Amino acid sequence: MLLDIHTHTHPGSWDSFLSPDEMVDLAKQAGLDGIVIAEHDWAWDADAARDLAKRHDFMVIPAMEINTEDGHLLVYGMHKYAFGMHRSHELWGHVEELGGVMIAAHPYRRQHPWNWESDKEWTDAIDRAKLNPAYRFISAMEIGNGRGKVEENGFSARLAKLMGFRITAASDSHAKEDMGKCATYFERDIRNEDDLVAELKAGRFWPIDRTRGKILADPIYHDVPSDLHDRWAEMDEVHRQYLETNPLHRRD
């Protein structure tokens, strides 16, 4: 299945130019199997989300994108905003209590090197980014963001690879031209929010750059690789080793 797990609509997200109905129409035209609408610091009403999905006969799952001191975090399985969520550890307390899951959105922001040609700046930027305390609580990193430059997404991909995180891609749609650029492939069928949360926790997904190079330069992200299970196993081993050598980054 191909899902866009990070989109925004108006008025839930003040900076979006798309109504919910427009977003769904665009997603269907793009050939997606479903979308997640993750508004900024705002929760959809469950009945409104169900009505939207029913009206279009299309899967729509509500989520949230929370602005924290440690960057933007996509939250799945939680539909509330409470005081203190701008601190990632307090946000995680709410998400964990509800059985939800978190993904780091566009992790390149405020982290990438200013000089893309400098190896030293790349190394320094990666070393700084790895210290982000929010990464103790995430299950994946969004390495393909449809509104990011290929160099910016490349930074996110490199960071996730070094830390061994599972990886996603999403359009981060705010306007018509954003939709369909990238999505996340799920190995198993997703029928509802519970399925989505379960598969995000299980890690059975892969980022897809549908532009084939304008979002993610590496061709491995342009299709589902034939050795996907081996790649997942390699990520798990890298993450295990990373946590062994960086115990302060463990969730517990």
Describe the structure.
- By secondary structure, this protein is α/β, with parallel strands linked by helices.
- The protein has one domain: TIM Barrel, CATH 3.20.20.140.
- It is built from seven helices and nine strands; from the N terminus they run E-H-E-H-E-E-H-E-H-E-H-E-E-H-E-H.
- Strands 7-6-5-4-3-2-1-8-9 form a nine-stranded mixed beta sheet.
- Strand 5, helix 4 and strand 6 form a beta-alpha-beta unit.
- The radius of gyration is 17 Å and the shape is globular.
- The mean pLDDT is 95.
Give the overall silhouette: globular
Q: Report the radius of gyration as a whole number of Å.
A: 17 Å
Please state roughly what percent of the residues sit in beta strands, choosing from under 5%, 5-15%, 15-25%, 25-35%, 35-45% or over 45%: 15-25%
Low-confidence stretches: none
CATH architecture descriptor text: Alpha-Beta Barrel
Question: What's the tally of helices?
Answer: 7
Q: Structural class of the secondary elements?
A: alpha/beta
Order of helices and strands: EHEHEEHEHEHEEHEH
How much helicity do the residues have? 25-40%
The overall pLDDT average reads 95
Q: What is the CA–CA distance across the termini?
A: 33 Å
CATH fold-level topology = TIM Barrel
- Just give the CATH class: Alpha Beta
Feature tags:
252 residues, alpha/beta, TIM Barrel, 7 helices, 33% helix, globular
